[in-house]
Amino acid sequence: LGIDVGMDEKEKIWVFEINYRPGCPPIFYLELDVVKNMIRYAKYLAQRR
Known about the structure:
It is built from 2 helices and 2 strands. By secondary structure, the protein is α+β, with helices and mostly antiparallel strands. It has a two-stranded antiparallel ribbon.
């Protein structure tokens, strides 16, 4: 399962798309630390604006 997400200026997370055949291996999405790091990085980028 692949999930495309984004974050707005108020740090609210939005789901844009859900795919049943993602481009990444399924194990990628099972690693919670990877998902947390992506969200942290998105927050970091949003705060730099």
